[in-house]
Write a structure and sequence with these properties.
7 helices, alpha+beta, five-stranded mixed β-sheet, 282 residues, four-stranded antiparallel β-sheet, 3 domains, single chain, PH-domain like
Length: 282
């Protein structure tokens, strides 16, 4: 899937460079951008599948799925069952990829179920006091037998439960409503700016990008030069977003990060006003 999406992104970028400025150019650019955003997500899922492991000993069960890790003391395990032994239907995660079943679902009569599995036919449910984990060991029957043996023998040492989640600064910042507003506002404003300019260029022959000291419009240039404004806006927004993430890592400086992200919205609005003014005098 990574190869397919990467090839499609390269193809869309190549088509954009060979398409006259207009609606078709805008569509290819947006498609390439969307595919490039999806690629890191697929790469992480591939890494999670490659690094996935279930480790069982007499004291604990450790579930590893990418950067997610759960350490469960044997004494905390209440029961383990295969999927076909359930009396209720199990809702699978809405977004499923080949080899990847991850996510959290709330299931009636079961409670919270967290999926850390690769294949539906191999699913086993491990119930603890807090939640149920859906896993897919290579040999489910042997896994169940080994787990039951560990429960019957009892643990040799007291293990404390532990949960480790991937702590990405992007995920942490996204949880704040104000941050989401600034990010989405800047994103859609930049997309709107790029779309407006792309659709306006075919109707123009030349455009002035500057002004003389007297206030008169400066030298005319080909209309395609108007693309400089959305490109500059996108570059400034990307730089502001990355700088904000670097600042956000320090809790005492998070207000400064919010100011940087708010500035992305303001600067994009100024670019929109600049395009409106240039089009009005062209």
């Amino acid at each position: 899937m990574i190869g397919i999406f990467a090839g499609a992104a390269v193809g869309a970028g190549w088509l954009a460079t060979n398409t006259p400025i207009g609606l078709g150019f805008l569509v290819y650019v947006l498609v390439a951008g969307a595919l490039l955003v999806i690629l890191p997500l697929l790469a992480y899922q591939a890494y999670a599948l490659q690094s996935a492991v279930y480790r069982l000993d007499r004291d604990k069960l450790v579930l590893q799925w990418g950067l997610r890790q759960e350490k469960i003391p044997i004494s905390d395990i209440e029961w383990v069952r295969p999927l076909n032994a359930l009396e209720t239907s199990l809702s699978l995660p809405p977004l499923r990829l080949p080899g990847v079943l991850s996510g959290v679902r709330h299931v009636n009569n079961l409670g919270t179920v967290e999926f850390m599995a690769s294949e539906v036919p191999l699913l086993l449910l491990v119930a603890t006091r807090q939640r149920i984990f859906a896993i897919s060991p290579a040999e489910p029957l042997a896994f169940v037998q080994n787990l039951q043996n560990a429960i019957e023998m009892g643990s040799l040492s007291a293990e404390a439960p532990a949960s480790f989640y991937p702590s990405f600064v992007v995920v942490e910042a996204w949880r704040e409503p104000v941050t989401r507003y600034f990010w989405l506002a800047a994103l859609f404003l930049n997309i709107g700016l790029l779309g407006w300019v792309s659709l306006s260029i075919p109707n123009l022959q030349v455009v002035s990008l500057g002004f003389l000291p007297s206030g008169q419009a400066g030298e005319k240039v080909p209309a395609v030069g108007l693309l400089l404004l959305p490109i500059l806006s996108l570059a400034l927004s990307a730089a502001g977003w990355l700088l904000g993430l670097a600042v956000y890592r320090r809790p005492e400086r998070r207000l400064l990060a919010q100011i940087l992200w708010a500035n992305n919205v303001v600067s994009t609005v100024l670019f929109l006003m600049a395009v409106l003014f240039l089009l009005s005098v062209s």
